[in-house]
Amino acid sequence: MNIAIIGTGNVGGALAQQLLKAGHNVLMGAKFPLSEKSIRLATIIGEDRFAAIENAVKQSEVVIITTPPDVVLQIIPELANIKGKTIIDATNSIRSKPGDYPTAFHAIKDITKSDAVVKCFNTTGFENMLNPVYKGEGIDMFCAGNDKIAKQIAGQLAKDIGFASCYDFGNDDKVELLEKLALSWINLAIMQGHGRDIAFKVVRR
Ligand SMILES: NC(=O)c1ccc[n+]([C@@H]2O[C@H](COP(=O)([O-])OP(=O)(O)OC[C@H]3O[C@@H](n4cnc5c(N)ncnc54)[C@H](OP(=O)(O)O)[C@@H]3O)[C@@H](O)[C@H]2O)c1
Q1: Which pLDDT tens digit goes with each residue over 115-127?
Q2: I need a labelling partner for 124 at 20 to 30 A (CA). Which of 11, 91, 116, 141 fits?
């Protein structure tokens, strides 16, 4: 698929590397001049994969948002060409919120008036996106939102990059629960001191 990733930091960089490895065509929607983080990523994936956000979005069917959540209030209203694309929101409104919206997902849906918005790639650390395999087995990803096709696309991308399954958490009303799951991972990994090499997996008897 043709995928634009807006945000070239930890999460954007990890997803870009993995999606490229899986055979997808990835364009980074970046700020220019490129930041140090962007330049570091460019040395790994190539400078030709960096474009102005509007151009990256124009050339893609799927747009993954990996910026701080409040940034969507600046960038999304300027992107008339984002309509009709599948938008994957990987942000967490933990340190900052997008204005009066509870999450970036809510802001994106309201601003774009698009149904094809899905929350995914927010529930685990970026290191786990770069390598989702523990002891030979993939860990799990989770997604939420009303749009079934958007969830299918996000779920397929998660599996393409090595997650074992992408569990559907439910509709839009479960998006904030998914951010709480992210906070639960952060709590265990950082506040409770278990370290970032931990991951969630659903097991069955
Ligand atoms: N870190 C994790 O493990 C993790 C896991 C799951 C979800 N998340 C969520 O994912 C999001 C990104 O986290 P991160 O750790 O990847 O952050 P990060 O490394 O700081 O990267 C954020 C990126 O957003 C870009 N950005 C900031 N303002 C922008 C603007 N106005 N226009 C375009 N790009 C802009 C930055 O660009 P410049 O470099 O050019 O400044 C940077 O590339 C956050 O919402 C976070 O809650 C993080």
Answers
A1: 999 999 999 999 9
A2: 116
Please work out whether the CB of residue 196 comes within 6 Å of at least one atom of ligand 1: no
Q: Considering the domain boundaries, does residue 203 fall inside one?
A: no
**Domain coverage including residue 27:** 2-191
What is the distance in A from the centroid of ligand 1 to the CA of 84?
24
The answer as to whether 196 is a domain residue is no
**pLDDT for residue 95 is more than 90:** no
Asked if 4 contacts 29 with a C-beta cutoff of 8 angstroms, the reply is yes
pTM over 0.90: yes
Question: Is the shortest distance between the CB of 8 and ligand 1 below 6 Å?
Answer: yes
Let me know if residue 202 belongs to a domain. Answer: no
Region 122-143 average pLDDT: 98
Cβ contact 65:103 at 8 Å: no
Contact assessment for residue 90 and residue 11, using Cβ atoms and an 8 Å cutoff: yes
